[in-house]
């Protein structure tokens, strides 16, 4: 079964400095039909204007992944990390027992476009942690590239949950398959372009909840990028 979450129906918050679309209920946006999918709690697509950002705030008992699609985001946290996250990079922050951080776009003229992803950890009270890595886009062209996993295999980021996060980039007309093991679920988030997934037409901003499917067939209509969460 595949259920499409149209990007145009996501929650939307428009501020003077932030344009944010919420796949799941978040902050002032609440929809009881869209609170989470399995252990996937948040997918926010944020555009942060130049010279602005999120001031210091706290998180607890959550795995937080930031994927910068364009621009540069400056991160500071209470466990001593300070870093610039550039386009193509992923950051994983384990909030665990508690962490404070800020996220700013220090550019004078360029917006930052990113996805912020929250996943419930398999255990509460973990020690806060931080990890950041640049992934080569060419390594996902026409194939699946593992970005995060429970065992950090293949050089992926470590995430404290039974989930694999993968990405692929397809050229127009290109096809790729993905096999799901029995009793596994998937969420696909289209970050760029248009494609069909098992015959369903989707485009950037759309999400798809997948259950009771053994095989996914993705065929690009335009050049496209897709993130896939393989979930317990």
From TrEMBL:
Cofactor note: Binds 1 Fe cation per subunit.
Entry superkingdom: Bacteria
Cofactor: Fe cation
SUPFAM superfamilies noted in UniProt: RmlC-like cupins (SSF51182)
Ranges where the Quercetin 2,3-dioxygenase C-terminal cupin domain occurs: 146-231
Binding site for Fe cation: 57, 59, 101, 103
This protein's UniProt keywords: Iron, Metal-binding
GO molecular function: metal ion binding
Matching CDD domains: cupin_Yhhw_C, cupin_Yhhw_N
Residues annotated as domain Pirin N-terminal: 12-119
Gene3D superfamilies from the UniProt entry: Jelly Rolls (2.60.120.10)
Keyword Iron attributed: yes
The keyword Cell membrane is assigned to this record: no
Family as reported in the entry's similarity comment: Belongs to the pirin family.
PANTHER family: QUERCETIN 2,3-DIOXYGENASE
Entry protein name: Pirin domain protein
Lineage, highest ranks first: Bacteria, Bacillati, Cyanobacteriota, Cyanophyceae, Pleurocapsales
